[in-house]
Write a structure and sequence with these properties.
The chain is of the alpha/beta class and about 250 residues long. The chain has one domain: NAD(P)-binding Rossmann-like Domain (Rossmann fold), CATH 3.40.50. The protein contains eight helices and seven strands, in the order βαβαβαβαβαβαααβ. Strands 3-2-1-4-5-6-7 form a seven-stranded parallel β-sheet, sandwiched between helices. Helix 1 runs parallel beside helix 2, helix 1 packs across helix 8 and helix 3 runs parallel beside helix 4.
Length: about 250
C-alpha cells in the first residue's frame, strides 16, 4: 500500500529547534507517523513538544544547547544515540535571524547567524551522516528558505546562510546518494513563526507580503510537516539533493 511508504515506524529522528514553530510541528508529525524523536531546544526547552510525542505513545528525549557552541552539535548526536540507539533521520531546522542594513551589520551578528544556520548544519550532517553511511541508509532534511533563491531585505547573514544550506544540501547529496543516504531540503516561504514576528507586526510589510503570496495567507508550521514526513520516509527514496519549496506560490510569481 502506498500509504505505508510514508510511515516512519521504528525510525529514530533528531529534530533541532523543536521547541516551537516548524521544528515542533515536524517533530510531532514524525511521532504521528510512528517515529521516536529527540527534540532539541536552545533558550526554550522542548518540553511541550516532548509531552505531545509521549501522548502519541512514542519515545522521546529533550536536549538543550546553543548551536553557536560547536560542541553542542556533537553532544546532540551522542545523546540521541545513547538515549534512543541511533539516528535514522536528521532534521536541521534550528535557525536564527538578525536584521539590519548591510552597511551597519555587525560582525558578531554575521558570525552568530552563519554559525547556527549553516555551520551547525554541516557539523550535524557530518556526524550523523557517518553513522548513516555505515548502516547504508538514512535521511537528512535541511530547512532552507525562499531566501535561498532571493536576497531578502536587511537580512544579509540569513540570506547568505540559507543560500549556503541549499548548496550544502546538493553537495552532500552528490557524495552520499550512492551510499544510501538521502539529503534534501525544504524551502519554506513566509511562515508564522518567532523569526517572522517583526514582519507580521509591521503593517506595511505584512500587507506587501500577503499581496505577493498567491495563497493569500502566511504559512503555518503544520504546512511544512507533510513535506518533512515525505522527505524522511521511503516514499522519497529516489529523491536526492532536492529543494522542496513550501511557500503558498511565492516563488511562482
Amino acid at each position: 500500500m502506498i500509504l505505508d511508504a510514508f510511515r516512519l515506524d521504528g525510525k529514530v529522528a533528531l529534530v533541532t529547534g523543536a521547541s516551537a514553530g516548524l521544528g515542533a510541528a515536524i517533530a510531532v508529525a514524525f511521532a504521528e507517523a510512528g517515529a521516536d524523536v529527540v527534540c532539541h531546544g536552545n533558550s526554550r526547552a522542548p518540553d511541550a513538544t516532548c509531552e505531545a510525542i509521549t501522548r502519541l505513545g512514542r519515545r522521546t528525549t529533550a536536549v538543550r544547547g546553543d548551536l553557536v557552541d560547536r560542541e553542542v552539535s556533537r553532544t546532540l548526536v551522542e545523546t540521541a544515540v545513547r538515549e534512543l540507539g541511533r539516528i535514522d533521520i536528521l532534521v536541521n531546522n534550528a535557525g536564527t535571524i538578525r536584521r539590519g542594513p548591510a552597511v551597519d551589520y555587525s560582525e558578531d551578528d554575521w558570525d552568530a547567524v552563519i554559525e547556527v544556520n549553516l555551520s551547525s548544519v554541516f557539523r550535524l550532517s557530518q556526524q550523523a551522516g557517518k553513522q548513516m553511511i555505515e548502516r547504508g541508509r538514512g535521511k537528512i532534511v535541511n530547512i532552507a528558505s525562499v531566501l535561498s533563491f532571493q536576497g531578502g531585505v536587511t537580512v544579509p547573514a540569513y540570506a547568505a546562510s540559507k543560500g549556503g544550506v541549499a548548496l550544502l544540501t546538493k553537495a552532500l547529496a552528490n557524495e552520499w546518494a550512492a551510499k544510501g543516504v538521502n539529503v534534501n531540503a525544504i524551502a519554506p516561504g513566509y511562515m508564522r513563526t518567532d523569526n517572522t514576528l517583526a514582519l507580521q507586526r509591521d503593517e506595511t510589510r505584512n500587507r506587501q507580503i500577503l499581496e505577493r503570496i498567491p495563497a493569500g495567507r502566511w504559512g503555518n508550521p503544520s504546512d511544512v510537516a507533510g513535506a518533512a514526513v515525505f522527505l524522511s520516509s521511503s516514499a522519497s527514496d529516489f529523491v536526492h539533493g532536492h529543494l522542496l519549496v513550501v511557500d503558498g506560490g511565492w516563488m511562482g510569481r
